[in-house]
């Protein structure tokens, strides 16, 4: 997104400079015609960015989002998620991406991580694929490692999973995948691929 806006800005600046050059030439009758061009170099960033524009951190690192310390420890693509007594299967043509994380409540009161019905500064999560495609979390009802609706006491932590149902085309692609946590206007992203 930022690259496109920089290119558009550079093109507009070039047009403006060319237009200004043309009007100055018209007012000077004996002046020789010249052409003004603006050359802009745009550097490509190698680190993926979250939707809000902040740089995503790597799996295994810990990031802070308000009163939560979050560490994404692994990601795997699965045909189904086993729960001991049965398994969860995605729709045909899809796979589950299972993201494992440890979350610590650094606040002074008990709080719910990823509430089903979040409001205000409650934490929410999504996966961003490629050029901005967004996938929401899938709640696996009865899955004992699900982090959705996890109530965590202060100075305590919990390890668990978050499931996302993705089309096979996304799973098989090499395009970037970022998991983004949001609380109010603050975001924290991790590069999954």
Distance between the terminal alpha carbons, to the nearest Å?
19 Å
Described by strand count, sense and barrel closure, the largest sheet is: 5 strands, mixed
User: Using DSSP, what is the number of strands?
Assistant: 13
> What count of helical segments does DSSP give?
2
Arithmetic mean of pLDDT: 82
**β-sheet strand percentage:** 35-45%
Proportion of helical residues = 10-25%
Structural class: alpha+beta
The largest sheet has its strands arranged as: 1-13-12-8-9
Q: Give the topology string: H per helix, E per strand.
A: HEEEEEEEEEEEHEE
Q: Uncertain spans, ≥5 residues at pLDDT below 50?
A: 1-46
How does this structure look, described?
- By secondary structure, this protein is an alpha+beta fold.
- Helices cover 16% and strands 38% of the residues.
- It contains two helices and 13 strands; from the N terminus they run αβββββββββββαββ.
- The protein has helices spanning 2-27, 168-172; strands at residues 57-58, 62-65, 68-78, 81-82, 87-88, 94-105, 111-113, 123-129, 133-136, 150-152, 157-167, 177-183, 186-191.
- It has a five-stranded mixed beta sheet with strand order 1-13-12-8-9, with no helix packed on it.
- A hairpin with a 2-residue loop joins strand 2 (62-65) and strand 3 (68-78).
- The longest helix has 26 residues, at 2-27.
- Mean pLDDT is 82; it is low at 1-46.
